[in-house]
Amino acid sequence: MTFERTNIASMEGYVPGEQPKGKAVIKLNTNENPYPASPEVAATLANIKVEELRRYPQALAEDFRQIAAQLHQISETNIIPTNGGDELLRLALTTFVEAGDNVVITQPSYSLYPVLADVQNCNIVEVPLQDDWGMPVDFISTLNQSQAKMCILVNPHAPTGVLLDTNYIKKLAENFDGVLVVDEAYVDFVDPTQSYNCVPLIDSHNNILILRTLSKGYSLAGLRFGYGIANESLANPMMFKTRDSYNTDHIAQKLACAALQSQEYAQANWKSIRQSRAALTDSLNELGLITTPSQTNFVLCQVPDSFGAAELYQALKKRGILVRYFQQQRLEDKLRISIGSEEENITILAALQEILAG
Ligand SMILES: Cc1ncc(COP(=O)(O)O)c(C=O)c1O
To answer: For labelling alongside 90, which of 41, 100, 308, 312 has CA 20 to 30 A away?
Structure first.
């Protein structure tokens, strides 16, 4: 006997990456930022008084909407503040997809998408990426043939790090009748010379919903703050109908505002992560762990046949280094390694060298 709805009873929940207690572990498994949030965020936190928590927070996170709008040079009515990027995904499915509808994602992709689709009781249609992780050649026709209500693309892609350029996203949005969610959780780490800025597309394309998060680029994974960027026709139903009342709390709103206002600090952080990414990529390749060129704060690498990825994951774990191993199709011979601090990157490389040398 269960009180769960039928689809909830038959589904599996999301399995998060390991979060070990204690500080001794080098944690390169969940793509957290290795550097602290900005000094302005720390000062804002230190100045919050318990008295401020007596009242409810700003219901629409108005201050945050204004600061985010200014940053992206759009209107605050285009910003949907959420409790982490994950809440935006849940809101998008709740608002735009009926039970039984199809939602297209690529395979592989962020493993939360199918879980949220199960909750909404809609169907996930997984379209395999090409061998080099490029988009399938006939993706647009597959999308339309499936009569999908929504397509969720992660860009740059997780877990491969591959970036799709803005023209591709534009073309996709133009040829698709449903809502195109562009999950930009890792966009802050993209090389600025690349074509990556999809924000201006929301004016001309009313079916694009962009996801942003402060978890990665702003070192605030523990805060739970993200936001959507979209034309008002997508933003308004989420802001005024399906969102929980007070979905972001007072402390989170204040720190999120401080984080977005520390642009100089954030951009210096992204630059140093890009530099570390380049150095780590070269060193991994030299060790025979062939990487996919990444535009994120992680790299996916292929483990040599002589040494299984699961074994390498365990050997690193024994030495107090956590990376991500996915026991799933196309990824079971690979490891995803988050870019750590310089010291952490040196430590993992030394450990890999020793382990692979036997
Ligand atoms: C691809 C992708 N999208 C969205 C998120 C959501 O991030 P958060 O809920 O921490 O903002 C994550 C987090 O790991 C992610 O990897």
So the answer is: 41
Q: What is the pLDDT of residue 16?
A: 87
Q: What is the pTM of this model?
A: 0.97
- The token duo for 201 is 């597309």
Q: Locate the ligand 1 atom nearest the alpha carbon of residue 216 and give its number.
A: 10
Which one of 19, 28, 31, 112 would you pick to mutate in the ligand 1 pocket, going by the greatest count of ligand atoms within 8 A of its CB? 112
Q: State the closest ligand 1 atom to the C-alpha of 158, by its place in the atom list counted from 1.
A: 1
Q: Which protein residue's CA is at the shortest distance from atom 3 of ligand 1?
A: 185
**Residue minimizing CA distance to atom 1 of ligand 1:** 110
Domain spans of the chain, in order of start: 6-37+264-356, 43-262
Q: Which of 224, 152, 160, 222 is nearest to 186 (CA)?
A: 160
Rg of the chain on CA atoms, in Å: 21
Pocket test for ligand 1, best of 89, 110, 326 (most atoms within 8 A of CB): 110
CATH label, 6-37+264-356, candidates 3.90.1150.10, 3.90.550.10, 3.40.640.10, 3.10.180.10 = 3.90.1150.10
> What ligand 1 atom has the least distance to the C-alpha of 183?
3
CB-side neighbour CA atoms (13 Å) of 97 = 32
Task: For residues 328-335, give the mean pLDDT.
Answer: 93
Query: Does the CB atom of residue 183 touch ligand 1 within 6 A?
Result: yes
213 lines ligand 1 (CB under 6 A): yes
CA distances from 131 to 23, 67, 81, 137 (A): 38, 41, 36, 12
Sequence-ordered list of residues with C-beta below 8 angstroms from that of 16, at least 6 positions apart, any chain: 30
At residue 126, the 3 state secondary structure works out as: strand
- 7-60 residue pLDDT tens: 999 999 998 888 888 768 999 999 999 999 999 999 999 999 999 999 999 999
Q: Given 3.30.2130.30, 3.30.450.20, 3.40.640.10, 2.102.10.10, which CATH number is that of 43-262?
A: 3.40.640.10
